[in-house]
Every structure is written in C-alpha cells, then in structure tokens.
Automatic annotation (TrEMBL):
<dbReference type="GO" id="GO:0005737">
    <property type="term" value="C:cytoplasm"/>
</dbReference>
<feature type="site" description="Transition state stabilizer">
    <location>
        <position position="177"/>
    </location>
</feature>
<feature type="binding site">
    <location>
        <position position="381"/>
    </location>
    <ligand>
        <name>Mg(2+)</name>
    </ligand>
</feature>
<feature type="active site" description="Proton donor/acceptor">
    <location>
        <position position="145"/>
    </location>
</feature>
<dbReference type="GO" id="GO:0008776">
    <property type="term" value="F:acetate kinase activity"/>
</dbReference>
<keyword id="KW-0460">Magnesium</keyword>
<feature type="site" description="Transition state stabilizer">
    <location>
        <position position="238"/>
    </location>
</feature>
<dbReference type="Pfam" id="PF00871">
    <property type="entry name" value="Acetate_kinase"/>
</dbReference>
<keyword id="KW-0808">Transferase</keyword>
<dbReference type="GO" id="GO:0006085">
    <property type="term" value="P:acetyl-CoA biosynthetic process"/>
</dbReference>
<comment type="pathway">
    <text>Metabolic intermediate biosynthesis; acetyl-CoA biosynthesis; acetyl-CoA from acetate: step 1/2.</text>
</comment>
<dbReference type="InterPro" id="IPR023865">
    <property type="entry name" value="Aliphatic_acid_kinase_CS"/>
</dbReference>
<dbReference type="GO" id="GO:0005524">
    <property type="term" value="F:ATP binding"/>
</dbReference>
<dbReference type="InterPro" id="IPR004372">
    <property type="entry name" value="Ac/propionate_kinase"/>
</dbReference>
<keyword id="KW-0067">ATP-binding</keyword>
<dbReference type="InterPro" id="IPR043129">
    <property type="entry name" value="ATPase_NBD"/>
</dbReference>
<keyword id="KW-0963">Cytoplasm</keyword>
Length: 399
C-alpha cells in the first residue's frame, strides 16, 4: 500500500485528499479556504468521523497546513510516508497531452502558458512549488484538465480565424474540467454495466464553473469550454459564450477602462451574478426566482444554454446512451435537473420526478422507456488525480 496525496489548487481554496493506493481508500479530505487575508478556514474529514473545522492565523502555506493536520490527526506519522503527490493543472495547452512527472524543465514550460488559465494555472503552479519544498524527495505528478480533450477533431477544436493564429499562437479550443468528465464517464460505464469504449455520453459538470462534454467510445469529441475556461455555458460569475463584437463596442463606449477590466467583468461579474444582480449561488437565485423576475431569468438562461449544448452534442454523437449530471449544482439541484429534463422529452428522454429527488448518489432517474439514461454521479477529481499519479509512478518505478 502506498499513500498518494492529491492536490487541487484554486485561486482562493485548495482541496487535498490522501489515498491508500491501489485500494483507492480515502484516508483524509482537507479543504483550505484562504480567501480571507487574516485567517484561513481549514476543514478535515476523516473516515467515520465528523467534519472538523479550524481557523489558522499563522502564516503557513495551504499544503503546509494540510501536512500539519495529517500528522495532528495521526493519519501519517511523518512526511516520508507520502509516496507521491498528484497536482490538478487546469491548462496544459498543446504542450501536455497526458499526466506527467514534474521536472524543473516541465515546470518552466507550464509557467509559459499561464495565460491560458490566468485564474487557475498560477495557483496550480504555486501549489506545486509549495509541495516540492515541503516534500523534496517525493515524486510530483501533474494531471491536466485539458489532457482529456486532446483528441478533439480539428473541426471541433479550431476557430474560424486565420489559420496563422493557430500555427503561430496555438489559438484553439482546449476545454477544461477534463479530470471530472473523465472520472464520471468511467463511473457511468460501471453503472450501466457496459464498456466505456462502447458508450455515447454527454457529461454535465455544473458548478461554479460549468462545462459539458460529448464523449464517444471513451474519448472527448467536443466540449463547451474553449481557449480558456471562460467560454461555453454561463456560469456563476463567468459569461460563457459572448459575441466578441460586444466587447469592442463596450470598449469604444468606455463601459470599462481597458481589456484587463473587461476580462475581470467577464470572469467575476457576469453569468448568474450578472443577470440576476442578486447572487452567484444557484441555491439563492432559485429561492429568489419565485418573487424576482431577474433571478427567474437567470435560471431560464442557464437551463437554455445547457439544453442548447445537449442538442448539439446529441447530433454530434448520433444520440446518447446517458446524460451524466455532476458538480455542485448537477449533483445537488434536483429542480435544475428537472427543468433540463423537461426540455429533453422531444428527444425521447423521460424522467421520474420522485426518483430525481433521491439523495443517495449515484442514481439513475430516467424511466425504463427513456432513450437515454439520466445519471447523477458525484465527481471525485482528487481520486482521478491519485489514480493517474499512482499509475505513472508505478510504471516508472519511482516507488
């Protein structure tokens, strides 16, 4: 048995899980919220124990805090027990097509493409450097969200721009959330008792960030996020698809001062928050929707854009064996799932409203006669990271 640490670094939080591999037993799950400057909220969940929350005011990095907690609660006795560390990286561009060991040269290449995910990659790199310093003799593995989408056909990843921009600047669709889409696709195959390489799936990762992927025979053939994680579906604070002429128009009319402010608005003030003008949290928006027309409009727009992509991917795949809901909204919001499912009846997709209310994930809420199964599957990006890290270091005999 080897202990593998999975690190999922974000711009204001960090998720860490420690697994016993290859048993895939989660020994601890830690969340570090360092959005507040004065203190860090750290929660740790251990098997068969209640969630523990602690506040730290000391100046320590999130990974350092996590290691202290693992020792404090006797999950590990020493850092040396950790055999490998896997890191989630949002954007690998065209440089990285699969999970890989992190070396100094690889890290320099990774930093050269920070622009592809400016809200995420710098935080991912910071997490890597932190772990390298704290665990200097431990193999570090990068697991890329974009890697799952590297097999997209050119007609699906290219933009209708001069080809020079692709050749010179590598402007293309890269997608994101690939670690999550890949995980739930594998879980869907298990639930359906069919090989993944025989399935046609539409996976819906619906959370603060939201994306959808068309998966055929185990491979991503199209995905909603594009050159960056900004485009595609509308999200909590991100705009999703927008006519670029709008941005030029608004810039000319001084709606924002410069392109940096424009990107801040598109990333942080748009989406559900921008339309509802009330909240970026779908739970709050749905509560307000009963009395607030703007909140109701935000929900309708979100549902419509999801269904637009489902229709596109249904044609891309030639039908679907299953739709898979995951992410914070996809897993927990039965009302949203029902609104989406109602619009799919023209495709022969039928759902059971009572079954859709279940809390014991995973489950299928389609009727027996439905042309596609409706699966709700909790994602586990940290487990996917641990699987890749363990597989790679075992193949390379790094442990």
């Amino acid at each position: 048995m080897k202990k593998v640490l999975s690190i999922n670094s974000g711009s204001s939080s960090l998720k860490i899980s420690l697994f016993a591999m290859p048993l895939e037993k989660r020994l601890a799950k830690i969340m570090v919220d360092y959005s507040a400057e004065a203190k860090q909220l750290v929660t740790i969940k251990l098997p068969q124990k209640s969630l523990v929350a602690e506040h730290y005011t000391e100046k320590a990095t999130p990974v350092e805090l996590a290691l202290k907690l693992l020792k404090k609660y006797q999950v590990i006795a020493a850092d040396q027990e950790i055999a490998a560390v896997g890191h989630r990286i949002v954007a690998g561009g065209e440089l990285f097509h699969q999970s890989t060991e992190i070396t100094p040269g690889m890290l320099r290449k990774l930093e050269s493409i920070n622009e592809l995910a400016p809200l995420h990659n710098p935080a991912n790199v910071a997490g890597i450097r932190d772990a390298q310093q704290l665990l200097p003799n431990c193999p570090q593995i990068a697991v890329f969200d974009t890697a799952f989408h590297t097999d997209l056909p050119p007609e699906n990843f290219l933009y209708a721009l001069p080809m020079e921009y692709y050749r010179k600047y590598k402007v293309r669709k890269y997608g994101a959330h690939g670690t999550s889409h890949r995980f739930v696709a594998q879980q869907a195959a298990t639930m359906l008792h069919r090989p993944l390489n025989e399935l046609k799936l539409i996976t819906l990762h619906l959370g603060s960030g939201a994306s959808m992927t068309a998966i055929k025979n185990g491979k991503s053939c199209d995905t909603s996020m594009g050159f960056s994680p900004l485009t595609g579906l509308m999200m909590s604070t991100r705009s999703g698809d927008v006519d670029p002429s709008i941005l030029v128009y608004l810039l000319k009319h001084h709606a924002f001062a410069n392109m940096d402010e424009c990107m801040r608005i598109l990333n942080q003030r748009s989406g559900l928050l921008g339309v509802s003008e009330a909240s970026s949290d779908m739970r709050e928006i749905e509560r307000e929707a009963e009395i607030d027309p703007q909140a109701a409009l935000a929900v309708k727009m979100f549902v419509k854009r999801i269904c637009d992509y489902i229709g596109s991917y249904w044609l891309e795949l030639g039908g679907a064996d299953a739709l898979v809901f995951t992410g914070g909204i996809g897993e927990n919001d039965s009302h949203l799932r029902e609104l989406v499912s109602q619009r799919l009846q023209c495709l022969g997709v039928e759902f059971q409203s009572a079954q859709n209310q279940r809390r014991d994930l995973p489950f299928d809420f389609a009727t027996a006669a439905s042309r596609a199964r409706l699966l709700v599957i909790p994602t586990d990006e940290e487990l996917m990271i641990a699987r890749d890290a363990y597989k790679l270091i075992t193949a390379k005999q790094l442990i």
